[in-house]
Design a protein that fits this description.
single chain; alpha+beta; four-stranded antiparallel beta sheet; about 15% strand
């Protein structure tokens, strides 16, 4: 569950603090399987060197973000997390919605935090495990940051594959 508390200016010009909650269940994700394909296609398109996004790319990111926010927004009520059209309409009609959505443009790293906290943790862990098990070429291993290399290969050289060992040697000799 993603929780954020932030100040915003309401329509009366007053500064108020809003606390918002977002969460996606496994069933909600199952009912929206196309989200995964949308996300992966967008991720593939945006991979590579850091650069300015084009206007169409910004619109794609925004459309996906709006959909995720709509699917995941709710209100806590004791031990329950309630999602209703009325609750979302109330949020969307407030300055809080505008401030929350705009905050992703002010802090692009926030989107990753939002996704990691909103999606079911066991699904994220399984996806990470599958990604880590992906076979990387020696060149990919050489080009990775040290942090990513350690995550993929681990820090115990006795458990490295032949490719990981060779890449580690080449990384060391290039430094």
């Amino acid at each position: 569950m993603y929780k954020e508390e932030f100040p915003y200016t309401n329509f009366e010009g007053e500064t108020v603090v809003e606390e918002v909650y977002f969460n996606l269940t496994k069933m909600e994700l199952a009912e929206n399987l196309d989200l995964r394909e949308e996300f992966l296609a967008l991720q593939t398109k945006l991979q590579g060197d850091k650069r300015e996004l084009t206007e169409p790319e910004i619109m794609e990111v925004l459309a996906l973000l709006k959909r995720l926010v709509r699917l995941s927004y709710g209100k806590k009520d004791g031990k329950k997390f309630l999602k209703t059209d009325e609750a979302f309409a109330e949020f969307q009609g407030s300055g809080a919605h505008d401030e929350f959505m705009y905050s992703f443009f002010k802090d692009p790293e926030k989107l990753l935090k939002f996704l990691n906290a909103t999606f079911p943790q066991d699904l994220l862990e399984e996806a990470q495990k599958q990604a880590d098990e992906k076979t990387h070429t020696i060149d990919e291993l050489i080009e990775m940051s040290q942090e990513e290399f350690d995550r993929v290969a681990g820090t115990d050289p006795t458990k490295w594959s032949k490719e990981q060992m060779l890449a580690a040697f080449k990384r060391k000799s290039a430094a």
